[in-house]
Every structure is written in C-alpha cells, then in structure tokens.
Amino acid sequence: ANCWKSRDKVQMHLFSESKVQNYDILAIQEPYINKHTDPLTTYSLALKGSFHILLQPTPKEEYKKRPQVCFYINRGLDPATWEVQYHNRDLSTLTLHTATHGTIHIHNVYNPGVNSNEESIISALQTAMAPRAQHIATKLINLMDEHGLKQLLPLGTITYERVNTKSTIDLVWASHNLANRVVSCDTKPEWWYGADHVSISTQFNLTAICVPPLIHKQWNVTDWDLFLKLMDIYNWYPRELNDNEAINEAIRYLVEAINQAAEQATPTK
Question: What pLDDT score was predicted for residue 113?
C-alpha cells in the first residue's frame, strides 16, 4: 500500500481495518515519517503493537533522506524465521523462511521517478504510449523475463487514480514457483482513503512459521516435595565458576533441570 506520506488521511485509517491487522506482512510505500523523533519513526498506533516495524534506521537530521518503504511483520510470525535488509531509502528486502516452501525474498521497491511523466512508463506495459515510454517499459519487461518473474495483478487493473487520470503504476511480481502458489492478487478499493494509489492485497498458499505458544505454569500449586526430589535426581549442584563459559554452562544446566522438574511437579494452566 502507498500511504501518500499521510498519517491522518491514509495510514491511520488503513491500519484500523480489522482485516489488515490479520495480515502476516504489510509492505508500505511512502509511509508517514515522524520528523520529530530520533531516529525517525513511522505510525503504528492503530495496529495495537501487534506488528514489528521494519523501517530503515535514519537519524533525525537526515529527514530529507527519509525512507520511502517499510515493512510491518505480524508478531505471530517467529522472529527467528525472518530478517530484513535495507539497501537504500527506496528498497528493502524481507527474507522469510517458511515451513514447507523454503526461503522467500520479498522486495519492497519504490520508484520516485524523475519527472511528472514517470507514470506513463509503467502504463506503457498495457497501452500504446510515447516511443520513449515504450522503450523503457520494454526494458522492464525484458528484465523481469531475465529473472523469471511474472506479473500477478490481472491485466488492466487500475492501481492509481487522480482527478481524471487512471493508470497501472503499482505492480506485483513473483517468481514462477511463487506465482503458482498465488491464491489472490487484486486491489482493495474499500481501503482507499484519499491517496492516489489503491492498496493491493496478495495472498499465497504458503505455511509461515509461527511463534510457539507460550506455556504458563501454575507455580502456586507446585508439588515442591516432588520438585526438590526431581532436582536431586537430575543431580544439579553448584559448580566452580572460574570463567564466563563455566557460568553460562552452570546457568544452562540449572534452567534445564528446573524445566524438567517442573514438567512433572508443576501443572500447566
């Protein structure tokens, strides 16, 4: 979704949508940037803390070089299964390790353009435009073919509307393997809050790795006689702590003994 750099008109309303809050990954372009924080931050209050915010770290004094893209990752996904790389203010890559379909790279790219005609460059993919635009569009098509990428949006999908202008300048590309696992890819006009770009929703048939459920123990009803007996069985005792390695090993052994004893002596909520 392109948020038009607006918190109040776009980003706040978009993030308030209940279905948006159930997504695994949000790829945002032109996010609202708070220029009063150091480092710079973006808006997330409506998401109620349920997402990790992946925004390129940028000091306050470099506001003019503020990031144009960012990711929001649902906290339900295991943090050990993903990482982000900030290439520059216009490009970030999220690497996601799935349960059954290997590793996936998600590239969030913003093309700011160099003049007011940049919109026609992508439009030339579907309509006859000026020769220069067709040439640039052909280069883009060839580049995508070279890397085996397929356009996922249905032909003719309008992703940009402004006054009397309608165009397709927001695109979703995927490798052939991923394209074969697409459940849906289309615009969401009902989430269109005053911006000139229409949000796009893409769903794949993939299995992400979720955070393991938290197990809560009822320590107040622990059978402490059994607990201490089990600690003796596990032969835990203080060791000589001569260096950091010995300390870490003693802590690891103690935690393991406590967990094993609690499995039998402490009920789960």
Answer: 62
- Report how far residue 267's alpha carbon sits from residue 264's, in angstroms, rounded to the nearest whole number: 8
What CA dihedral angle connects 76, 82, 83 and 85, to 10 degrees?
-100
In this predicted structure, the answer to whether residue 130 has a pLDDT above a threshold of 90 is no
Whether 160 and 241 map to the same domain: the answer is: no
Contact 150, 128 (CB under 8 A): no
Confidence of residue 119 (pLDDT cuts 50, 70, 90): very low
Binning the chain into helix, strand and coil, the percentages to the nearest 5 are 35, 25, 40
DSSP conformation letters of 212-268: PPP--B-GGG--HHHHHHHHHHTT-------SHHHHHHHHHHHHHHHHHHHHHHS-B
Exposed, middle or buried: residue 19 (CB in 10 Å: 0-12, 13-18, 19+)?
Answer: exposed
Cα separations (Å) of 151 from 106, 147, 198, 237? 14, 12, 17, 62
What CATH number has the domain bearing residue 108? 3.60.10.10
What is the rounded distance in angstroms from the CA atom of residue 169 to the CA atom of residue 110? 11
Count Cβ atoms below 10 Å from residue 7 Cβ, excluding itself.
Answer: 19
Convert the pLDDT of each residue in 7-35 to its tens digit.
999 999 999 999 999 999 999 999 999 99
In a domain, 122, yes or no: no
Q: Are 75 and 52 in contact (CB under 8 A)?
A: yes
Beta bridge partners of 161: 166
Q: Which domain holds residue 17?
A: 7-112+148-204
> pLDDT (tens digit, 9 = 90+) per residue, 34-85?
999 999 999 999 999 999 999 999 999 999 999 999 999 999 999 999 999 9
Q: How far apart are the first and last CA of the chain?
A: 41
